[in-house]
């Protein structure tokens, strides 16, 4: 026979702490997702030395994905506004060749950007590598401030990685990507970014160089 409700034991201490931990983790994840989303929805581009465009998926046949195209189109618009004299396209070879950087460059050339204004970084396969492999090229140009162009969800983490390499960083969101326009995709990619930041908390501590 089951004891009366008033006499039943509650969850043990281990289970209680498990519930607390899950609650804290859930709150932290969705709190970080909110910060990621709000940060990415704001235009922060200012006059800089270089526009750094981060790569995205290349489709079969070397065609740019929606995200890749949106990032390049936004960077070209900023270039036409005179915000920076050069564009650095950062992204290696993924599932489909050629490199993301090369596909972005070809698209920028078709949009009227002169070839001498385009720089390529073709080794990176992650946001951390985008910043690390681009930093040597940026320093060789004497660059101190950059504008990083990517999907809105990606910008907070990207800014932090470039800050870790000593750059002043402004950000510019490519709003017309499907990943931002479709609600389900926006939620998925934003939560994914929040998890990435929570797993690498040192990245969040990067500050603007003095």
List keywords for this structure.
Rossmann fold; alpha/beta; globular; 49% helix; two-stranded antiparallel sheet; five-stranded parallel β-sheet; 210 residues
What features would you describe in this structure?
The protein is of the alpha/beta class and 210 residues long. The protein has a single domain, classed as HUPs (Rossmann fold, 3-Layer(aba) Sandwich). The chain contains 8 helices and 7 strands; from the N terminus they run H-E-E-E-H-E-H-E-H-E-H-E-H-H-H. The strands form 2 sheets. The protein has a 5-stranded parallel sheet with strand order 5-4-1-6-7, with helices on both faces. A two-stranded antiparallel sheet has the order 2-3. The longest helix is centred in the first third of the chain and has 28 residues, at 13-40. It is globular and about 65 Å long. The termini are far apart.
The CATH architecture classification is 3-Layer(aba) Sandwich
Structure summary, number of beta strands: 7
Give me the side-by-side strand order of the main sheet: 5-4-1-6-7
| Fold-level CATH name | Rossmann fold
Helix coverage percent: 40-55%
| Structural class by helix and strand composition | alpha/beta
- Mind describing the biggest β-sheet? 5 strands, parallel
Distance between the termini: 71 Å
The CATH superfamily appears as HUPs
* Rounded mean pLDDT score: 89
Number of helical segments with 4 or more residues: 8
Strand content: 5-15%
Query: Judging from the principal axes of the Cα atoms, what is the shape?
Result: globular
Order of helices and strands: HEEEHEHEHEHEHHH
> What is the domain total for the residues?
1
CATH class: Alpha Beta
Unreliable runs, pLDDT <50, ≥5 residues? 16-24
